[in-house]
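Quick one, T. Sequence first:
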Amino acid sequence: MIPDKTTPSKLSTRQRLLEAALSCFSRKGYHQTTTDEIVAESGLGKGTLYRHFKNKQDLFVSMIRWMMQDIGKDMAIIGTQPEPVIDRLRAMVQALMEDMERLLPFFRITLDYWAHTIEDVQVQEIFSTSLREFQEFLVPLFEEGIAAGELRPVNARHAALALFAQLDALALYKALLDEIDLRGTVETAVDIFLTGLKAHDVSA
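C-alpha cells:
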C-alpha cells in the first residue's frame, strides 16, 4: 500500500516530489495547484522538479502510476499465501481498507482532473492498464478456488472485475459523500459477494 510519510532526507528526490504532489493536489485539486506550491511542499528546487518531470501534467500522471503500483504491492504478497482463496480475498480487501483514508484524496483528485480533462488519453490508458493488471492478478485466484472446489464454477474474469468494480465504486461514493460508512459498506458488500461465490459444500 501507499507508504506512510517518511523523513524527507530518507526519501528519494523523485518520491519527495510525488509525495508533495499528492499533498498539494489533495488540498486544492489538480487545476488549482501550481508547480511552485508543489516545489515548496517538497522542500526542493524548481529546477529539480523539471529534471524529473516535464510539467505538472507529467507529474500528475507519474503520481497516478506510483500510487497504482503501491496499491498492488500488498495484494501481490497476500495472493501468494497458503490460506484458502476466500481468506486471501478478504485479506486483500482488509489491506485496502487499512489505507483507504490515504487513498480517498487520490479519488478526489482523479474526479477533479477528469471533470476538466475527460479526453486525456494518457490518463485513460493508465487506468485501463491498471484495471487489466488487477483483473489478471485476481483471475488465477478465482480459478484456483474453483479448481479446489472452494468456489462455484463461475466466469473467473467476470468475478474479478465485479469484485474490483464494487470496491472502486464505493471508494468513489465516499470521495463524493463523506457521510458514507465506507468500511462497513465494503465489509457488507464483500461478505455478500464472497458468500455467493462459495461452493455449496464449503462451510460458512
